[in-house]
């Protein structure tokens, strides 16, 4: 079986789906690895490292037409899919609920599409959970970006020239990214507060040494799967009232709130931004899904009334070396489950394989995707 990796084509994408370390493991499993020259360059992995790990450097078209299993970070372009071998498989972040036309394309081309983003988040699949690996990086980087934009210290400083109080950081949304943003801001010495609509998060926030902002909500805010639900208009207003006061006194606000399959909830209004002090910073890492702040411009850093509002895109790519290392490990864990006797074994009785497999043999497979596409 041939496993292929091509250079990523998206402008902001520096990650690679398979590292030399991953290549070595797949080679030892008896698989042949084809890789396009310079696929790992932007994440500091050289062609020579891939060759030393057992890969063969091949031209893009040959990889696409001969590969049985293509590994990628971003979903490859349609023009690449058209060149892929019939009945071959692709593993990448496919976001099938957001890209239904892409799913149709895979179905019509008889390609198997496995989405790293639809692997169920159960304990057995933890080592394959690329959403968590990447969110962790995004949260870490968000805290660093906040510190970098701020024209003040984060830790308390006692110097001969006077004492500087610690900066106040507010994190909205305490999922994987938010918790890592809290931990990183704490390590940098800030005083951190956080809020999430899932009550279960309070304990996790406090265990990181941050204060949990309480907003009494009179409705169920969490799905059975542990994700957030969209709030009613009444509770959204209630949440905004409480958050407004905390935003106004914060030096850095990091927003990470997402609701699966929906645009990001708007938590920070224009008025709240205008009530922040000059020089304060908002890092809105929900920018990719429209942003949690009303004035965020995705992909840009703007100044609104002397407040810096940054809506970065693809933060994991900015830590490409480690992001690739973790993503490659997540993929390898999935392959450990998928590959039997050197061939993919699409055992749909296994809930991980079933949910990750969006398309196979011209059919929609993933129960998760089917349910949520309704
Ligand atoms: N293997 C596992 O068991 C595993 C792994 C990772 C995550 N999870 C769980 O998955 C869930 C989601 O994690 P995620 O980081 O992917 O979440 P996410 O990226 O979907 O959302 C980020 C956070 O935003 C919060 N949020 C949504 N609307 C909000 C609002 N209006 N105000 C404030 N916060 C709001 C969510 O509650 C969530 O904590 C969590 O329960 C997490 O523990 C489980």
UniProtKB/TrEMBL annotation:
Record keyword Cell inner membrane present: no
One Pfam family hit: AlaDh_PNT_N
InterPro entries: Ala_DH/PNT_CS2, AlaDH/PNT_N, AlaDH/PNT_NAD(H)-bd, NAD(P)-bd_dom_sf
Superkingdom of the source species: Bacteria
EC number in record: 7.1.1.1
One cellular-component annotation, GO: plasma membrane
Record-annotated Alanine dehydrogenase/pyridine nucleotide transhydrogenase NAD(H)-binding domain positions: 147-311
Keywords: NAD, NADP, Nucleotide-binding, Translocase
Alphabetized GO MF terms: NADP binding; oxidoreductase activity; proton-translocating NAD(P)+ transhydrogenase activity
Reaction(s) catalysed by this chain's protein: NAD(+) + NADPH + H(+)(in) = NADH + NADP(+) + H(+)(out)
Transmembrane segments annotated in the record for this chain: none
Biological process, per Gene Ontology: NADPH regeneration
Domain Alanine dehydrogenase/pyridine nucleotide transhydrogenase N-terminal per the UniProt entry, residue ranges: 4-138
Family, per entry: Belongs to the AlaDH/PNT family.
Described purpose of this protein according to its UniProt entry: The transhydrogenation between NADH and NADP is coupled to respiration and ATP hydrolysis and functions as a proton pump across the membrane.
Record-linked PANTHER family: NAD(P) TRANSHYDROGENASE, PROTON-TRANSLOCATING NAD(P)(+) TRANSHYDROGENASE
Name of this protein: NAD(P) transhydrogenase subunit alpha part 1
Organism this protein belongs to: Rhodohalobacter barkolensis
Phylogenetic classification of the source organism: Bacteria, Pseudomonadati, Balneolota, Balneolia, Balneolales
């Amino acid at each position: 079986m041939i496993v292929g990796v091509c250079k990523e084509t998206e402008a902001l994408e520096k990650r690679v789906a398979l590292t030399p370390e991953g290549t070595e493991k797949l080679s030892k499993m008896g698989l042949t690895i084809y890789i396009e020259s310079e696929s790992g360059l932007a994440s500091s992995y050289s062609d020579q490292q891939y060759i030393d790990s057992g890969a063969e450097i091949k031209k893009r078209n040959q990889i696409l037409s001969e590969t049985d299993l293509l590994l990628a970070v971003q979903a490859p372009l349609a023009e690449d899919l058209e060149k892929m071998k019939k009945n071959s498989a692709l593993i990448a972040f496919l976001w099938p609920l957001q890209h239904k036309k892409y799913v149709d394309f895979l179905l019509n081309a008889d390609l198997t599409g496995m989405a790293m983003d639809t692997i169920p988040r159960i304990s057995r699949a933890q080592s394959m959970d690329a959403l968590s690996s990447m969110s962790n990086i995004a949260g870490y980087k968000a805290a660093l970006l906040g510190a970098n934009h701020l024209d003040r210290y984060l830790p308390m400083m006692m110097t001969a020239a006077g004492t500087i109080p610690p900066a106040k950081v507010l994190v909205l949304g305490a999922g994987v990214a938010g918790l890592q943003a809290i931990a990183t801001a704490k390590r940098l010495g800030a005083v951190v507060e956080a809020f999430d609509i899932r009550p279960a998060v309070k304990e996790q926030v406090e265990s990181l040494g941050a204060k949990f902002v309480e907003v009494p909500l009179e409705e169920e805010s969490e799905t059975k799967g542990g994700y957030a639900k969209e709030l009613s208009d009444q509770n959204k207003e209630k949440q905004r009232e409480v958050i407004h006061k905390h935003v106004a006194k914060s030096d850095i606000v990091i927003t990470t709130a997402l609701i699966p399959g929906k645009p990001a909830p708007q938590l920070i209004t224009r008025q709240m931004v205008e009530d922040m002090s000059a020089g304060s910073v908002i890092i809105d890492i929900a920018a990719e899904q429209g942003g949690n702040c009303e004035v965020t411009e995705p992909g840009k850093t703007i100044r609104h009334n002397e407040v810096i509002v940054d809506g970065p895109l693809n933060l994991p790519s900015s830590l490409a070396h480690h992001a690739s290392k973790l993503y490659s490990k997540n993929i390898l864990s999935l392959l450990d489950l998928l590959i039997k006797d050197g061939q993919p074994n699409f055992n749909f009785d296994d809930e991980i394989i079933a949910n990750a497999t969006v398309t196979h043999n011209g059919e929609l497979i993933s129960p998760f995707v089917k349910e949520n596409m309704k």
